[in-house]
Every structure is written in C-alpha cells, then in structure tokens.
Design goal:
The complex is a heterodimer of chains A (113) and B (115). Chain A contains no helices and eleven strands. With 113 residues, chain A is an all-beta fold. In chain A, the strands form two sheets. In chain A, strands 2, 4, 5, 9, 10 and 11 form a six-stranded mixed beta sheet that branches. In chain A, strands 1-3-8-7-6 form a five-stranded antiparallel beta sheet, with no helix packed on it. Chain A is globular and about 40 Å long. The model of chain A has no long low-confidence stretch (mean pLDDT 91). With 115 residues, chain B is an all-beta fold. Chain B is globular and about 40 Å long. The termini of chain B are far apart. Classes of the chains: A mainly beta (113), B mainly beta (115). Chains A and B meet through strand 4, strand 5 and strand 9 of A and strand 5, strand 9 and strand 10 of B.
Chain lengths: 113, 115
Amino acid sequence: GQQLNQSPQSMFIQEGEDVSMNCTSSSIFNTWLWYKQDPGEGPVLLIALYKAGELTSNGRLTAQFGITRKDSFLNISASIPSDVGIYFCAGWDSGGSNYKLTFGKGTLLTVNP
Amino acid sequence: KAGVTQTPRYLIKTRGQQVTLSCSPISGHRSVSWYQQTPGQGLQFLFEYFSETQRNKGNFPGRFSGRQFSNSRSEMNVSTLELGDSALYLCASRSSGVANTGELFFGEGSRLTVL
C-alpha cells in the first residue's frame, strides 16, 4: 500500500520561532491536505493543495505541493503557544479511485512560551 | 453551516459488548468516512459510504461495520469489543461529484474506552 512519511515526529520550539515539517510519499498524489489536531478533538483542515508547485498560505501557515507530486511541506512562521498540537499531512492518490485518504503519522509540536 | 456531528463524544464499554456510533455529515455532503485513531497506529481508515453504499473498506475485522441512511447520516458498529478497540473514532464527510475538492472535514470524534 501507499506509504506516507511525515517528519519530524515531534518538535519542541520557543515562541516566535519558525517551524517546518514535511511529508513524502511512495507514490504520486493529486491533492495534499494539512490538518491540525488538538488533544481530544478531531483534525481541522488547515490548507488544501491541488497542483504541483502550488504554494498556499493561511495566515502564518504556508504549504507547498512538491514538484514531483510526492511531497509537501508546511511552514509556520512566528509560532505562538496556541500552535501546539499534532499536524497531519494527508494525500489523495492519483490512481482514480479517490476513495481513501492516506495520512502521515503526524508531527507533535510543542511551543514553549 | 454546521460541521460534522458525532455522538456520543465519550463512552465506556466492557469486553464482549457492542457499540454503535453515529455521525451526521455537513449538510449536502453525501460521502462519509470513518477512521480509528490510536496513539500507536495513527489514523486508520475503516470505511467510506456514499449514497448508502460502502464503496471502500480498510483492513479491519468483520466486527467493524457501518451503514449510511438516505439522509447521509451514518452509523458504525463494533461488536464483541476487545481492549484494543479503545480509540478515538472519527467521522469525516466531503462533498461529491463536481463539487468534490477532496477536502475531508472531521467531527470531534467519539472516544471509546473498553474495560
């Protein structure tokens, strides 16, 4: 099956620092999604990417759809304490079925005030 | 518009019992998917329903089942509960057809604890 590797697994940073995380896939995706999950809650969609090379921002968050269509990146600028949570990447395959979303294992972000 | 609604939010069961979880998708969304989330395994796909038909299924035993009603609401059932079934069960919906952007919207989840 498809493999989606997300890194790093966890990050511990100081408030105000920038953060970068990425996902790589063993196969081509035609859509990348980035989610944030707070403890005990469901994942919330942050950014959706639809074509290779696309760069999309949502406030302090910026995500990119890799040119190879096998990777995606999420950057958070000037982190604040409420950025704490688990960030997941997810991708739809390009095989035509489009029925199943593959998720990364998540990046646990801790922000020290 | 209202988001994905899941009930109950929390429940405790004992081994051998069965449980039914409910999900109401975003209005107009006809696709509903279910995921199991555990600390060790992450988000694992259970199944997806569209127009009352299961159109994809993950690698879970037959104890896990689901259905979708004509109003797109969905239920999932787990029979003969095992300790390992303790997890956060997430429901997600998305639009379909020409409006389908692939964006999946999640509910807050149902936290199941099996004792």
